[in-house]
């Protein structure tokens, strides 16, 4: 393969890279080389079949597609149909199951009450009385919203295990992403369009990257071949921004995930796709049971596979979640300012922007980048 045959190099075959590559290949009719360091396409959205049980699972943790953007839904449905799965998350605290996000059932069950929806505001005001009215960090925001008891039961331990830092060191905005509901609605998402790809996530990526103008290199470190590309080639890089610039302004901190696979001789182990374990004494953060993701499938097995999820410091191999401390935000600002001076370079996606994105937002960002910058740059050549 002659690298000089390509005008566009896409680094990373995750959702952002795959969508960008598909747009360039199909809309601009240009040849695209996608470089992937792993041995598979799809990034953290990759899915596979468990050999022992035949159950399809998500290699890097449960991924639920959901969106309120019609253009995103229409686009992704060109590459896969979706089932009708609706996500529900439970939390196991002191051997009792509660609903998450915190809703009226959670509150009533925890406090052994029978509040009505119109009584929730007054109850929350009562249990948060005396807490800080202008919270400046994650813990203060949580306690001022749901009270100290609910915070200690469902949020603090989970957060400590997830991030391995004091919740006071996290920004308040992280808790703002966690809704508190005043009724019995158990749906985790409210977006109009939701589901799991009928044929799994890897099927989507096979279709996205199946255009004849796209070539894919697996098991390839971009930086080992970077110098072989023409200087005028356009690079769309969706890896960690600090790695691209050889950590010029320091290393950005990430958390990663580790999964322990277990098989049980029962058809259903926990009755739900995901159950959280917020207590600090339990080492894992949650348990995934993927058999529940495809209710339309009739798996012919008397076994089920589950995955215990552990949150760990990242060693650079598989970054998941950016740790948005003031120090990291300062470094990120330096990297972005420096990157702006490079021609024909687009650093984007979850890793490139050092920001956690849901899948639909990733697709939306990729489509917008293509329409507003990449297509325009091609037109001006």
Short recap of the structure:
With 381 residues, the protein is of the alpha/beta class. Helix content is 31%, strand content 18%.
Q: How does this structure look, described?
A:
The chain is built from 13 helices and 16 strands. By secondary structure, it is an alpha/beta fold. It has three domains: 3-41 and 209-248 and 322-379, Rossmann fold, CATH 3.40.50.720; 46-88 and 187-198 and 254-313, no CATH class; 104-176, no CATH class. The protein has a seven-stranded mixed sheet with strand order 7-6-12-13-14-11-15. Strand 3 and strand 4 (56-58) form a beta hairpin. It starts with 7 loop residues before the first strand and ends with a helix.
From the structure above, extract its key features:
single chain, 381 residues, alpha/beta, Rossmann fold, seven-stranded mixed beta sheet, five-stranded parallel beta sheet, 13 helices, globular
